[in-house]
Specification:
Elements (H helix, E strand, L loop, with lengths): L12 E8 L5 H15 L3 E6 L15 E5 L9 H14 L7 E5 L6 H8 L4 H4 E11 L3 H5 L6 H13 L2 E5 L6 H15 L5 E3 L7 H4 L24 E6 L7 H9 L5 E10 L4 E8 L2 E6 L9 E7 L3 H13 L1
Parallel strand pairs: 1-4, 1-5, 2-3, 2-4, 5-6, 6-7
Antiparallel strand pairs: 8-12, 9-10, 9-12, 10-11
């Protein structure tokens, strides 16, 4: 029943998995879902997975029950850590109950691997997998699917995330002409090889009740009925740059936009000249967004760059250009 999204007669905790390639907007969709939880007076739990050793988005989830899985990807190197976190959650829920759990995988996670954990004992007794929400970047979709501008690794990964999703959120539609948007939706439908619900969004905003609907009703434990082969992303890297200088905003934006094309994502904290304040930044789709960070959080400047097959020497040379300015 629409509107009764959290009622669960079995008393299991509903779980929503957020998937999507680097920079697609998963965290923005998650924040919108958390806002809905706040309005409903519900207590959420959040598991965040980061590729690098530093989570630079933790400040977005202040006063939330957050568990961080760093330096890996749920579907590969730290899948056992996910199980440990789930065990910790079960223990904590004895004295601090949750109403809903969100799991946000890295931009290179295969949600099928997360699903297998949730459907294994003892987690299937405690949690009810409601939906796997895959966020797609409309502004980069065609480029990522092109054999001329993308790698086989990227195409396979996005395909895995797409066909595993029970709901597809086509985000950043404001950055795409209408005629191209229709072409993208047709290509998604064709590649999915299944009838999928596709919801368009700008800044991850969608009718919350639609996001919270139960879309997974029966799944066979074991080999995926979709017969998806997971391709391990051996060329994916996260590069951490520290000792960041105070930067001029326009120069920093220019520096980011002139990074090599295989740098797909950037985030971190920088101090903006003349403002004397730390800002968090998000870089994706050749666009940059800045948000002021309260001094009380005591963060240090740091830049995290994520991409495929990064040339560390080339990035470091590019970094020196910024430091010299």
């Amino acid at each position: 029943m629409r509107g009764e999204i959290f009622i669960n007669s079995s008393k299991k905790i509903p779980v929503y998995v957020l998937s999507g390639f680097l920079g697609s907007g998963k965290t923005t969709v998650l924040l919108n879902m958390l806002e809905h939880c706040k309005k409903k007076g519900l207590q959420p739990g959040i598991i965040l997975n980061e590729i690098g050793q530093t989570n630079v988005e933790g400040h977005l989830f202040e006063n939330q029950k957050v568990f961080e899985l760093l330096d890996g990807c749920i579907c590969c190197t730290i899948q056992e850590d996910l199980k440990e976190t789930m065990n910790e959650l079960i223990t904590e829920m004895e004295h601090s109950p949750l109403d809903v759990l969100f799991i946000e995988g890295t931009g290179v996670a295969n949600p099928m691997e997360i699903q297998e954990v949730l459907l294994s004992h003892p987690y299937t007794d405690q949690f009810d997998l409601m939906s796997i929400i895959t966020v797609l970047d409309a502004s980069n979709y065609l480029e990522y699917q092109s054999i001329f501008s993308s790698s086989t690794e990227v195409r396979n990964l996005i395909h895995e995330q797409m066909i595993c999703g029970s709901l597809l959120v086509l985000n950043k539609t404001d950055l795409v002409p209408l005629n191209q948007l229709e072409s993208i939706k047709q290509k998604i439908t064709k590649k999915s090889k299944q009838e999928k619900t596709i919801m368009e969004s700008v800044y991850g905003k969608i009718d919350a009740e639609l996001l919270f609907e139960k879309r997974i009703h029966s799944v066979t434990i074991g080999k995926s009925p979709l017969d998806v082969e997971h391709h391990h992303h051996s060329t994916l890297q996260a590069l951490k740059l520290e000792d960041c200088p105070v930067v001029r905003k326009k120069e920093f934006e220019k520096w980011l936009k002139h990074l090599p094309a295989n740098v797909l994502r950037g985030k971190g904290f920088v101090e903006i000249e003349s403002s004397h304040q730390l800002y968090s930044f998000q870089y994706a789709s050749r666009k940059v967004a800045f948000t002021p960070v309260p001094a009380a959080l005591n963060r240090k400047p740091v830049i995290i760059l994520i991409g495929l097959g990064l040339d560390t020497e080339q990035i470091n040379d590019h970094w020196k250009q910024l430091v010299k300015q």
